[in-house]
Amino acid sequence: MGLSDVKKELRKLDKDKLINLIADLYTKNKSVKEFLDFYATPNENELFNKYRNKVYEAFYPKRGFNYNLKDGKQAITDFKKLGTSSQWIADIMLFYVETGVQFTNDFGDINEPFYSSMESTYLAALKFMKSEALLDTFYDRASKIIDNTINIGWGFHDCLIDIYYQFYDDE
Prior knowledge:
Layout (H helix, E strand, L loop, with lengths): L2 H9 L3 H14 L1 H11 L3 H16 L9 H13 L4 H22 L4 H20 L7 H9 L8 H12 L4
């Protein structure tokens, strides 16, 4: 069944049945609840802080010592789905990389998959910022990430510099 089939079936419902269906979805599906809560009372700042904390906890969990990059990336994906503004999306993507760099500086070199995740997110963030005309807005943070990777191994610093200069002309 595709979207057009679903729309066709929804058009058959009267207003009360449609409201009941949405209310049922709201109570049974966490992501629908969050989406509709944001739709009804859009507070991007509050929502951003909630997802920012999820990203942070992926690196610095409240319990245990194991970072979980998958949780951090999932928080970014979920945040994007809520329909927030481009500036908030770019912010959380950079925050993921900033937190990964800080984690490395706190605990020492990690491993290649860790750095690959940071590199791909940094590239995706800069591509996104370029498409949304936000590169100037985030120039200082994008540059500071580079500065904070100087002592990190695995060629991470060099890779981020290459990515950085694809978008910024500081030379």
